[in-house]
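To: structure desk
From: M.T.
Subject: fold request, one chain
Message: Could you run this one when you get a chance? Sequence is below, nothing fancy, just the single chain.
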Amino acid sequence: MSAPAKPSLEPITSRAQLVHWLASGSKPKDQWRIGTEHEKFAFTTDDLRPLPYDGPRGIGRLLQGLIPYGWHPVDEAGKVIALVDDTGASVTLEPGGQVELSGAPLDNIHQTCCETYGHLKQVKEVAQSMGAGFLGMGFQPKWSRADTPWMPKGRYKIMRDYMPKRGSKGLDMMLRTCTVQVNLDFSSEADMVKKFRVSLALQPLATALFASSPFIDGKPSGLLSSRSDVWTDTDPDRCGMLPFVFEDGFGFERYVDYMLDVPMYFVYRDGQYIDASGQSFRDFLEGRLPALPGQLPTIGDWGDHMTTAFPEVRLKKYLEMRGADGGPWRRLCALPAFWVGLLYDDAVLDAAWDLVKDWSMEEREQLRTDAPRLGLKTRVAGRTLQDIGLEVLDLSARGLRARGRLNDSGRDESIFLETLQAIAASGRTPAEEMLDSFATRWQGSVDPIFAEYAY
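Reply: Done. Structure tokens follow.
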């Protein structure tokens, strides 16, 4: 849900162009990079309310306050709705005012952590002058949908109208969730396929390790990751575990076919979002899109459409890991470290595939269903996710050590796994710690979260 990039006006005249667009993301290993994104809830520190867009304590003022730090504003209909800088990073808004950093493509996790720390320092300095703060967790623990203001972005109005037609929790996804994710490269179609399969199979493990959203509307929800559960009833056309990824013959062409069957949301033209919700990109390719009759799509339109599917792992010109709740600073660094260690070392990637390759699709789907509720106690193929997690974290650490990216103290990137290793060793998710605090120290209130889990 980032700000629209400058659109490519290259017309699409064949399905092969769409396949080539995906394949063009392939890069030699020495050019692989790490792009980390994280979202956070902005709140007023005196009464723990969400920030509207307008006003002296609004998200608009927050964005304006970041401009002196070297950010350039992106406007929509006369309002600043995003910021970009010269490194390739951006600050964008989710529908309910969640503030997202989409980081620059970086070489190592040490740089990622510095980038994250620098961004949090900036937004905290601006927010403090407004009497505001930021909360890191997966689902808003206190505010209802009705409490949450909508941000003034055209695509969000279209999605807001369409979401309830396809599931009961799509508006919760838009307004009340936050995630941390990492975008990673591949060298070829075969490399993409192996990374896609491994990361899709293990995404529920990330859900369990990062689970930090056990509350809805101020009360325990019965879940450890309410954020992850939301995606199970958002829109079956564009979410889920993508069984076809594990089928023989999967590759760029098959993913293109999947995306052609995902109903559209919009077309972006001349600074405006045109409602095409529920319409077919296949019709668009033939000049028969009801929203724009007679017009053919551009590569820019295809790039926009690719952002409107929300599976647990998403393919664009890179792979996006989408299974984790947002959380505190250390876990924001741990998420990219976890996946880089697994996917950027060939031997480790092969070992990870050996671990998951015999799971059936039914087992993978059950794992996806159970992890938001049971966390590390979830079982698959006769093992708990705690047991699997300890093994996978060992693999990830091995991959990070083999990369040999050292900080100024001579330590490699595996240091960023320590917080996850502690969670896996204990068998207790961050959400379970929150629930214990809710029942004891917090005396049945979620309000202390806004102090204890704020950045």
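Reply (cont.): Confidence is low (pLDDT under 50) at residues 1-5. Let me know if you need anything else for the meeting.
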